[in-house]
Amino acid sequence: MKKILLFAGTTEGRILWEYCNDHKIPVTAAVATEYGESVLPQGILSRVLVGRMDRQQMEDLLKDSQYRLVIDATHPYAEEVTENIRTACIKCRKQYIRIIRESFKLPGAIYVEHLKEAADYLNGHEGKALITTGSKELEVFTKVKDYTKRLTVRILPDPDNLKHCMELGFAGPNVICMQGPFSEEFNLAVLKEIKASYLVTKESGSFGGFPEKVRAAVTAGAKVIVVKRPKEEEGYTCKEVMEVLSHSVI
Fold this sequence. Notes:
With 250 residues, the protein is α/β, with parallel strands linked by helices. The protein is built from 10 helices and 11 strands. It folds into 2 domains: 3-100 and 233-246, Rossmann fold; 110-227, Rossmann fold, CATH 3.40.50.720.
């Protein structure tokens, strides 16, 4: 039986992984970290590859004829990774599907093009902020005046992520290490606890907890700063891919 290669690391990746396991569809998931592996329940016809891959490593993996379909369920902001996956699939002549998230636009939000612009905005305005854009590009927020007192960051509970935050100067009380997505009630409690005037988030769409964060911010009276998606993508929703898989002979 030929397998599906699933580039995971998102809520959609976990959902599709569970769908394949439940329907006895052979699947291999590729995740960047051991933490990414830990959130995927074990399956009889599945396995997990752990570690970041460059384009050549992806091509080497795809040369294996056992993979019939490649599903890219990486984050909407992972531009380089998606481009590498797509290019490797073209070169190795593999069917490629990109998972896309539906947009969730918020009237009254402060939309910015990139994280630096979000940091610049905070630097020019008083008040505390909850940063929910991940740990990878947190360094940009160290340019914000009094950032160690004003900013609280929420990151995945990975030791490397926490170490990175501490090295940047974010102290224990200003670092929340938890796995999302989070409920509206939880987000509201956090925003109230830290007395946040702002919530900084990426426009991650209907998945990933974006609507819950937005509603909580509105209730808390916090302004929402949204980092726009890099570009509009073509692809399929998670539900559409499950429908395709349900009618396919793997």
